[in-house]
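Worked example 3 (structure in, sequence out).
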């Protein structure tokens, strides 16, 4: 069976996922092994490479996000479990010693990126890369863009996606402004990080980096990113940036 989240063509054979081998696959396999060694159960198990050079990982059972299930991903229980899972992921990966000769793909980072507090960021921690079981998020996959980085860089993207911090015009937005603010605080409390303007600045920086990355990749012939631009995804991120900037104080100041 073939699965796709929009970027990768992934095949499920006898319960094992085969992903296209990439220059960073060895690093990701090593990271996944470290997370498993730490007792972290929320990520796929690394299963090496097949004869065609595809990276193999275990399939995480559970509900994934699609048009039919998106409402299941909007509860407070889901939000809380996502924050706790991200925290456990960061704690489990904090002392990972990267394979020195293997690259990370990572994602381009913003210019003001603080260099302290490094963990291994997932870099795409969002409902569409998580699995739901019994009403809680207990697994995350798609580690392709993982790389060392500040924990709050990952929190920033996660709150953007889960609270979510996007205007009603965005098809994946839900909840009133007040509701989004409440959920933002809840996520930060559960993760145990300040809900402050600096975090929202990181969200803006993260989304700006994503827009640039999409355009760069499309300009270099990447068809998936060209398709995203064609579908107006860059515009959605631009609108979200304005929305966050307009509501920066409201989101982060108790009234
Ligand atoms: N380890 C996994 N466990 C369960 N489902 C997975 C796993 N990896 C991928 N999938 C499924 O395959 C789809 C595409 O995989 P993903 O790694 O997210 O690729 P993309 O880079 O295209 O987003 C996911 O949306 C999910 O439904
Ligand atoms: Mg994905």
């Amino acid at each position: 069976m073939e699965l796709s989240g929009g970027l990768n063509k992934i095949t499920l054979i006898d319960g094992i996922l085969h992903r296209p081998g990439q220059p960073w696959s060895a690093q990701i396999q090593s990271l996944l092994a470290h997370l498993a060694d730490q007792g972290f159960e929320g990520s796929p198990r690394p299963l090496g490479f097949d004869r065609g050079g595809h990276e193999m990982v275990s399939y995480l059972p559970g509900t994934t996000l699609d048009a039919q299930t998106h409402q299941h991903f909007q509860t407070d229980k889901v939000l809380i479990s996502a924050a706790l899972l991200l925290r456990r992921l960061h704690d489990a990966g904090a002392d990972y010693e990267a394979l020195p000769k293997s690259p990370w793909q990572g994602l381009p980072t913003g210019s003001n990126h603080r260099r302290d507090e490094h963990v291994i960021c997932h870099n795409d921690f969002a409902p569409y890369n998580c699995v739901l079981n019994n009403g809680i998020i207990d697994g995350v996959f798609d580690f392709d863009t993982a790389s060392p980085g500040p924990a709050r860089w990952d929190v920033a993207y996660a709150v953007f996606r889960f609270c979510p911090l996007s205007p009603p015009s965005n098809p994946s937005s839900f909840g009133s402004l007040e509701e989004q603010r409440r959920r933002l605080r809840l996520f930060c409390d559960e993760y145990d990080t300040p809900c402050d303007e600096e975090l929202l600045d990181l969200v803006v920086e993260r989304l700006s980096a994503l827009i640039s990355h999409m355009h760069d990749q499309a300009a270099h012939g990447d068809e998936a990113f060209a398709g995203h631009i064609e579908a107006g995804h860059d515009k959605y991120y631009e609108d979200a940036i304005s929305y966050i900037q307009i509501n920066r104080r409201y989101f982060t100041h108790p009234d």
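Notes: The CA atoms of residues 89 and 157 lie 15 Å apart. The first helix runs from residue 25 to 37.
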